[in-house]
Amino acid sequence: MGLQPKTARIERAGQTVDIPIADVKRGDIVIVRPGEKIAVDGTVVSGSSHVDEAMISGEPLPVKKAGAML
């Protein structure tokens, strides 16, 4: 838990803002830039990248994640 980010970058009302993780609501669009840790669990809705899931699954290789805008 000590490695979890304290804030999340989200899009609200057309603006990108950093907020405490406790303030992230269901339905918020969380923006994750390359190399950043993912602050909360969710579904990829747009874009693609490789994610290091070693702390969750033990898998040492990054896993490709992709989504399509709904």
Feature tags:
70 residues; mainly beta; 3-stranded antiparallel beta sheet; two-stranded antiparallel ribbon; 1 helix; globular
Broad shape: globular
Largest sheet descriptor: 3 strands, antiparallel
Mean pLDDT: 84
Got a strand count? 5
Low-confidence stretches: none
How would you classify the helix and strand content by structural class?
A: mainly beta
Instruction: Please state the CA-atom Rg, rounded to the nearest Å.
Output: 13 Å
Cα separation of the termini: 31 Å
Instruction: Please give the order of strands in the largest beta sheet.
Output: 2-1-3
What percentage of amino acids are in beta strands?
25-35%
List SSEs in N-to-C order. Answer: EEEEHE
How many H/I helical runs?
1
Q: What is the helix fraction of residues, given as a range?
A: under 10%
Give an overview of the whole structure.
With 70 residues, the chain is mostly beta strands. It is built from 1 helix and 5 strands. The strands form 2 sheets. A 3-stranded antiparallel β-sheet has the order 2-1-3, with no helix packed on it. Strands 4-5 form a two-stranded antiparallel ribbon.
What order do the helices and strands come in, and which of them pair?
Elements: E1 7-12, E2 15-20, E3 29-30, E4 47-51, H1 54-57, E5 63-67
Antiparallel strand pairs: 1-2, 1-3, 4-5
In a nutshell, what does this entry contain?
The protein contains one helix and five strands.
